[in-house]
Amino acid sequence: MSTFHGSASHSSEAEPSRVPLPRTRGTALRQRLAELRGPEVPAKALDARALAALAANPGCKRRAILDGAGVNKTAVASALGAPSAFGQSQFALTRGNAFEAKVKADGGAELLRLVHERLDRTAQPPADARVPDLTAIGPEGRTARTALALREATEAAGTWTLLDHPMLALDVAGSPAFLEPDAVVVHPDGSWTVVEIKSFPMLDGSADPSKVGAAARQAAVYVLALEAVAARLEPAPKVRHRVLLVCPKDFSNLPTASAVDIRKQRAVTARQLARLTRIQDIADALPDGTCFAPDQPAAELTAAVESVPATYAPECLSACELAFHCRDRSRAAGAVTSLGRSVRAELGGLTTVEEVLAAARGEAGDPDDPAVAALRRAARLRAEALEGIGPASAPGTAAGGAAW
User: What distance lies between CA 233 and its chain's CA centroid?
Assistant: First the structure.
């Protein structure tokens, strides 16, 4: 929670005239989010992985406000009795950190060699690259230090620069999210490249497509944040849309890399983030006293979570810690979203399984509605198929022959 420290006169006469400084809208929002999180609960940083998942489901106000307030969704899910197995194991985290340290050893010599080899062969080899110190106090300080280092590296044309764990800021639904990519490389021509280091292997030059896709969506978030920094410079440097994905080669611990074009992921993520409801608007609509602190009574926590609408889809199971809780609620309500987004899109205004079945039986629904008409036709075809395999249509009979 932010605290303002205004300058005050040391004379006793000045004391009565002191008035509290007005709260700005930004400060009021931060205080409101701290209240939602719980006064004694530290904020959980919104990283690019979570942001990419949030962008993939922009209609979920529940995830938007919980992530925006820095709520620990893992702790909340456990307190609700629906813990999720989502996330990396401690072994995977340790292995990933060890591999990243190996890739960045010796001033990032191997990492820069891979960038040169995969993305910029025409440039001079990366010898004596600069690795600026990005340490600063707090995320805001680190963000400012990163922006300064990027500007200095861009102006120093003709040299390579490696930024190890820079800090970037991206506006998400009216609230800043601080992001920390594995690395950003500034090329001799002044262009910028995002580097993603993952511990899953590349076998014979290719990796698991689903894992590569997740890494590409995560990198797209970093590219958007870098573009915001570049836009404040004159002239604006180029942020490359081909990122470098570094992984272990085959079953060894030796690094290899592949260039990944993330233009599609960047466009989709930018569009989805623009569709997010502003966090301020969601917070303003919540009842007074709403709090998501996981240590409060289960009934109060459940009421707080349920006060924010969710948009569940099966894809949430691999991307959100609250997925099991939301799935249980979606199934209990008979919502068709639990069947998948593609099914939901085909059913138009029919939002529950009960409505779908009633429409298929001809008990409800507008017959001119294409979704209702398709359901009734499917029901007729099913009934005909079931009649065709009845006792009167046993193999060898005329009816059976006609049916089959």
Answer: 27
| C-alpha distance across the termini of the chain, in Å | 72
What residues does 164 pair with on adjacent strands? 183
CA angle 195, 199, 200 (to 5 degrees): 110
Beta sheet of 183-186, edge-to-edge order: 161-164, 183-186, 192-197, 242-248, 255-261
Of the pLDDT bands very low, low, confident and very high (cuts 50, 70, 90), residue 182 is very high
In sequence order, the 6+-apart residues with CB closer than 8 A to the CB of 86 are 317, 318, 319, 320, 321, 323
Q: Which two tokens stand for residue 351?
A: 């939002």
Instruction: Kindly list the distances between the CA atom of residue 248 and the CA atoms of 200, 201, 205, in Å, as whole numbers in the listed order.
Output: 7, 5, 10
Q: Is the pLDDT of residue 13 over 70?
A: no
CB distance 220 to 173 below 8 Å: no
| DSSP E strands, 98-202 | 161-164, 168-172, 175-179, 183-186, 192-197
Per-residue pLDDT tens over the stretch 299-309? 999 999 999 99
Backbone angles phi, psi at 195, to 5 degrees: -120, 125
**Distance separating alpha carbons of residues 400 and 309, to the nearest angstrom:** 51
Is 199 a residue whose pLDDT tops 60?
yes
* Residue 132 to residue 361: CA distance in whole angstroms: 69
Residue type, 328: D
Closest CA to 170 of 232, 224, 240: 224
- Look at phi and psi of residue 19 and say left if phi exceeds 0, alpha if psi is from -120 to 50, else beta: beta
- How far apart CA 192 and CA 233 sit, in angstroms, is 13
